[in-house]
Write a structure and sequence with these properties.
Length: about 140
């Protein structure tokens, strides 16, 4: 079964659940992040990848978000949100981390394996073309 996915356009890339935890501001700069923040497509906004997995929809506004999500869910054992939150270096509690908001149904080892496999398949399909969405908006539908 191929995972279903599609792209939408949103006003702010920061509204993706993983965004805050991936794009760390570079000290002494204004609006510069590492890795770099995604760029908007003029007159449309920021492309968001929306992946349907069973009854859940996951959303990412950058390929770095998808890579981070896959990396964390691939780990054995799954890191705690306290461990992951401490890496950000801010007083943001573990309850606000994207992993704490991920539905419990997706956290079991067996389910994570299936989810990671599905996300890797989606990544292989969209990685080279994600930045070219303004020309091919409907070409990236799957499902």
């Amino acid at each position: 079964m191929k995972p279903a996915f599609h792209f939408t356009y949103e006003k702010d890339w920061r509204s993706a659940p993983v965004a805050f935890w991936v794009h760390v501001p570079v000290p002494g700069t204004k609006d510069v992040c590492d890795p770099p923040a995604p760029l908007p497509i003029p007159h449309r906004g920021y492309p968001f990848l929306r992946v349907a997995f069973e009854s859940h929809e996951l959303q990412f506004s950058a390929i770095a978000h998808l890579d981070h999500f896959i990396d964390i869910l691939s780990r054995r054992p799954l890191p705690t949100t306290r461990q992951l939150s401490s890496l950000r270096g801010l007083p943001v509690g573990p309850n606000g981390h994207w992993l704490s908001r991920l539905p419990a149904a997706l956290k079991s080892p067996r389910k994570r394996d299936k989810l990671v496999q599905a996300l890797r398949a989606v990544r292989a399909q969209v990685a080279g073309s994600w930045s070219d969405l303004s020309l091919h908006r409907t070409a990236f539908r799957s499902g």
